[in-house]
Design goal:
Layout (H helix, E strand, L loop, with lengths): L8 E2 L4 E2 L3 E2 L4 E2 L4 E2 L4 E2 L4 E2 L4 E2 L4 E2 L4 E2 L4 E2 L3 E3 L4 E2 L4 E2 L13 H4 L3 E3 L4 E2 L4 E2 L4 E2 L4 E2 L4 E2 L7 E4 L4 E5 L20 E4 L2 E4 L1
Parallel strand pairs: 1-4, 2-5, 3-6, 4-7, 5-8, 6-9, 7-10, 8-11, 9-12, 10-13, 12-15, 13-16, 14-17, 15-18, 16-19, 17-20, 19-21
Antiparallel strand pairs: 21-22, 23-24
The structure holds coenzyme A (COA) and zinc ion.
The site of zinc ion has 7 residues, from loops.
């Protein structure tokens, strides 16, 4: 256990238990980080963010206000999670069957550079590919390919998005930064 790096800035009204947090991460007011959570370097955890023990957040992530990152959820590096987006970690909860909770945790992974829009709901057990873009309010029920743009309920792939967040042309080229992509097994990969 590495512990909390001395450069981490924690608001005096945040609650941070014995967890792991990398250099230069900021934790804003009313956030609560439980013991054994792992958070990387240079992250920004907004007001009211909750990080459960066993949750993993990579480097350079932004987690906006009101997001809970539960055990079973892992975020790669440079992941943006919009305000009030919802992760889940139990597919079929029952209040009277708490004994089943741990056994039923389904893991969710969000790849490097991905964006999750405000108020999106991510059902557990899915993988959101690197640099994927989940529109605001989307309900994600299936895996999302790398660089895929998903919107709606249920979320469907409606296009492709560059690392810079611009929509790609049909030729899989970015109109803004001119980066080009090709299809591969995970979705899209840069050429
Ligand atoms: C998904 C998103 C990136 C699309 O942006 P865009 O490429 O500019 O798309 P447009 O606004 O031109 O919309 C294109 C179509 O998608 C629809 N659409 C856009 N966003 C949508 C969403 N989140 N859910 C469902 N449909 C959506 C539009 O209604 C439009 O449909 P139409 O062609 O039938 O009229 C954007 O709408 C979005 O959700 N951004 C996330 C914002 C956010 O949560 N930020 C968090 C930090 S504050
Ligand atoms: Zn681009």
């Amino acid at each position: 256990m590495v512990g909390i790096h001395p450069t981490v800035r924690i608001h005096e009204r945040a609650l941070v238990d014995a967890c792991e947090i990398g250099p230069d991460t900021r934790v804003w007011a009313f956030a609560h980080v439980l013991g054994e959570a792992r958070i990387g370097a240079r992250c920004n955890l907004g007001e009211g963010v909750f990080v459960e023990g066993g949750a993993v957040i990579g480097d350079d992530c932004t987690i906006k206000n009101g997001v809970a990152v539960w055990e079973g959820v892992s975020l790669g590096n440079k992941v943006f999670v919009g305000p009030n987006a919802v992760f889940t970690n139990i597919g079929r909860p029952r209040a009277a069957r708490k004994d089943l909770y741990k056994a039923r945790f389904a893991t969710t992974h969000v790849g490097d550079g991905a964006t999750i829009g405000a108020n999106a709901t991510i059902l557990c057990g899915v993988t959101i590919g690197s640099y994927a873009f989940v529109g605001a309010g989307t309900v994600v029920t299936r895996n999302v390919p790398a660089h895929g743009l998903v919107v709606g309920n249920p979320g469907r792939v409606r296009g492709w998005v560059c690392c810079c967040a611009a929509r790609l042309t049909d030729a899989l080229e970015c109109p803004e930064c001119k980066m080009r992509f090709r299809k591969d097994a995970d979705g899209l990969a840069p050429l």
